[in-house]
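tool_call: predict_structure(chain=1)
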Amino acid sequence: MVSDAVLVTGCSSGIGRATALALVRAGLPTWATARRPETLAELEEAGCRVLSLDVTDEQSRTAAVKAVEAAHGAVGALVNNAGHGGGAPVEEVPLDTVRAVFETNVFGLIRMCQLVLPAMRAQRHGTIVNLGSAAGLVTPPTGCPYAMSKYALEALADTLRAEVAAFGVRAVLVEPGAVRTQFMSNSERHSPTVDDGPYAGYKASIDRMVERAHREGARSVATADDVAKVIVKAVTARRPKTRYKVGSQARVAPVARRLLGDRGWDAVMRRLVPFPADGSRR
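tool_result:
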């Protein structure tokens, strides 16, 4: 019997929480996970099975996958949502921050794929949904290292999809634009704070741009529920798309970037994010 159980990582808030709720309401056996399982009480009440899962810890990863396989025979769908934010000018970003972001967003995600694939292959059915980002299509200033990690998932999407198709496994990449969640505020805790220095004015301009977009509720800013609906569609579709772009930012910005070329795009960025010549916080 083919398993339809779904394992979702990073469900303590935001897209992960919304996705777990949407999946269980769609009637799918849903396993919601987070590093702190005490944050999952609402999801458990809604009908989700809950587990502790730190995607950067091998024992935790293995135990979570084994628990789902013990109950269902295989993970029917894996939603790799857990993410680590953080960004700064390249000159200032600590390499420890770069390593931490890649440990969660790339290495942990790949290892989760490796753990679920043997049973998916055995039942010749399964879906892996990886959460990319518009930041993996168009890199914003101070996008290091978060955008770098999402660019890595673009390459992973193409190689994984080709490798597993013959075994009946589908690999999908979801690419949201800006999303109104706690992720931005959480990311700030992982970003180095340099009050002065040559990039202070630049970072202040970027902060104002982001705050303005979220405050004004721009149509380009999606909600966690918007992304969750797309993920449910990808999990339940008989033949899902290979990529799903969510929000106008994810659809329009890459086209503009391609048409403008490097110098044209740089000019647009200078208008959107003015960089005071003296680096001050104007």
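agent: Residues 182-190, 278-282 have pLDDT under 50 and may be disordered. Proceeding to next step.
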